[in-house]
Design goal:
The protein is an alpha/beta fold. The protein folds into two domains: about 270 residues, Aldehyde Dehydrogenase, Chain A, domain 1 (3-Layer(aba) Sandwich); about 190 residues, Aldehyde Dehydrogenase, Chain A, domain 2 (3-Layer(aba) Sandwich), CATH 3.40.309. It has 16 helices and 23 strands. The strands form six sheets. A seven-stranded mixed beta sheet has the order 15-16-17-14-13-19-20, sandwiched between helices. Helix 2 packs across helix 7. About 50% of the residues are buried. The structure holds nicotinamide-adenine-dinucleotide. The site of nicotinamide-adenine-dinucleotide has 27 residues, from helix 8. Nicotinamide-adenine-dinucleotide (NAD) binds next to helix 8.
Length: about 500
């Protein structure tokens, strides 16, 4: 076996070796082997990255938005040019199929394209003559040094939700990627340098809680974007706010797909297969719960789903026919398997059991076959908690009202979908679901780059979603200017507070 490579940080426009004595192991989940070691930055290394971003801020913020956009146009071209390389790097650390890796990279690329339009997006409002010879207008100015803390499941797309918009708005950035998939962020930083980004405008610091804590406490950090699990996100939101920072924390999920009796069965089955088992269920918008309205609906759906789940092509990303890859780490595999055991103990019916699946030649990989539970009830742990694996729960209800009540009483509110041909029912669902992103006959309703991504309830802490105009608002501060150019007007001193009409 080869000795694992040791990764670095990216500070001031170059890869920088760490002096840390703490390292994490980065797996190739398909083989189970450790392919590299990632340094866990200490507080001094974090400070170095933040100082680099702080030093780069004034010049970058002062650049006209069109010049900043030009760097992003170059970056876009490089992303396209390096797509195959980036997808292979991503899949080797994450395990997802190459087609899925490219799909997620393309979603990230679309945010870069959105950010290229920054001169238009930063256009403010102007009111002529708010009072006699007084005009008012607003500016959107950068907030300063921004931090991104990202999860393992989208090594490129989630960082790309954040830094293109932040940089376009004139901020500088420190990215702390997931320690399970650190390489993509380092490579994206290199490509940005090649695209013409000045040194220090984007830095990548690898690490764990120690690095995050240092970032949250640093007085030079103005804003924090987090994507990850709910307990960590909630703590980061509270700590970041206590330190006076602007924070957005996008968190965990349990996404329901409601199937009405009139839904197109074939379309629904295809949608459920991709949304529940794509990326081995390791997506914050994965469908992990199907709510079937009526026993007939449930029985028909299960009859179609079961053989398809058993026939899933589970394979390493190097197999072009792979439909589902491995889970991320042995610890996560054990956690998901424990959920399957807990479901059995609690009385749910495991109608497809993927626990015995083996991938020939990859016996040490972290593979788990697709699992399907029928007759799950709301009090079960497998329903209440996010499993983040290829385990789908089916709940049976009698009518639409019971289905929407389930959706609305769950603690998470990221995504939900309804499959139906009934426009009234679909409209009621879109209006009444307490959910941030809703699909109608669309199982994974991830908003495109020029709309904004975010959930409700305990799926998001903070006020702003990511990318689209919400992203521009998060990464800018609003300033309103009221200006008078005197031309002989003299009113004398005014000691009372004037309304606009009095001027
Ligand atoms: P995670 O919360 O374990 O880690 C996310 C980030 O936080 C990583 O960079 C990690 O290093 C850091 N971190 C972990 N523990 C920490 C701690 N105690 N203190 C400070 N920082 C810490 O999440 P994950 O396992 O990498 O990702 C999966 C989770 O992310 C799932 O819950 C999924 O739903 C969620 N997710 C949400 C969205 C969304 O948009 N809502 C998108 C993708 C993933």
């Amino acid at each position: 076996m080869n000795t694992p490579a040791t990764l670095s940080h990216y500070i001031d426009g170059q890869r920088v070796s760490s002096h840390s004595e703490r390292y994490g192991e980065v797996y190739n989940p398909a083989t189970g082997q450790v392919q590299s070691l990632v340094p866990f930055a200490d507080a001094a290394e974090v400070k170095q990255a933040v100082q680099s971003a702080a030093a780069a801020l004034p010049a970058w913020a002062a650049k006209p938005p069109a010049q900043r956009a030009r760097v992003l146009f170059n970056f876009r071209a490089l992303l396209l040019q390096h797509m195959d390389e980036l997808a292979a790097l991503l899949s080797s650390e994450h395990g997802k199929t190459l087609a899925d890796a490219k799909g997620s990279l393309t979603r990230g690329l679309e945010v870069v394209e959105f950010a290229c339009g920054i001169p238009q997006l930063l256009k403010g409002e102007y009111s002529d003559s708010v009072a006699t010879q007084v005009d008012s207008y607003n500016l959107r100015q950068p907030v300063g040094v921004c931090v991104g803390i990202t999860p393992f499941n989208f090594p490129a797309m989630v960082p790309l939700w954040m830094f293109p918009v932040a940089l376009a708005c004139g901020n500088t950035f420190v990215l702390k990627p997931s320690e399970k998939v650190p390489s993509l962020s380092l490579r994206l930083a290199e490509l940005l340098t090649e695209a013409g980004l000045p040194d220090g405008v984007l830095n990548v610091i690898n690490g764990d809680k120690v690095a995050v804590d240092a970032l949250l406490a640093d007085p030079d950090v103005a804003a924090v974007s987090f994507v990850g699990s709910t307990p960590v996100g909630e703590a980061i939101y509270q700590t970041g706010c206590a330190h006076g920072k602007r924070v957005q924390a996008l968190c965990g999920a349990k996404n329901h797909l409601v199937v009405m009796p009139d839904a197109d069965l074939n379309q629904t089955v295809d949608a459920v297969m991709g949304a529940a088992y794509g990326s081995a269920g390791e997506r914050c918008m994965a469908i992990s719960v199907v709510v079937a309205v009526g026993d007939e609906t449930a029985d028909a759906l299960l009859a179609e789903l079961m053989p398809k789940i058993k026939a899933l092509k589970i394979a390493p990303y190097t197999d072009p026919d792979a439909e589902m890859g491995p889970l991320i780490t042995p610890q996560h595999l054990a956690k998901v398997r424990n959920y399957v055991e807990s479901g059995i103990k609690e009385g749910a019916q495991l109608v497809v059991d993927g626990r015995e699946v083996q991938v020939a030649g990859h016996e040490q990989g972290f593979f788990l076959g697709g699992c399907l539970f029928d007759r799950v009830t709301p009090e079960m742990q497998i329903y209440k908690e996010e499993i983040f694996g290829p385990v789908l729960c089916v709940l049976r209800v009698e009518n639409y009202q019971q289905a929407i009540d389930l959706v609305n009483s769950h603690e998470f509110g990221n995504g939900a979908a309804i499959f139906t041909r009934d426009g009234d029912c679909a409209r009621a669902f879109t209006h009444h679901a307490k959910i941030g992103m809703v699909g109608v006959n669309v199982p994974i309703p991830v908003p495109v780059a020029y709309h904004s991504f975010g959930g409700w309830k305990r799926s998001l802490f903070g006020d702003h979603y990511m990318h689209g105009m919400e992203g521009v608002r998060f990464y800018t501060r609003l300033k309103t200017v009221t200006a008078r150019w005197p031309s002989g007007i003299r009113e004398g001193a005014q000691f009372h507070f004037k309304s606009g009409s009095e001027h």
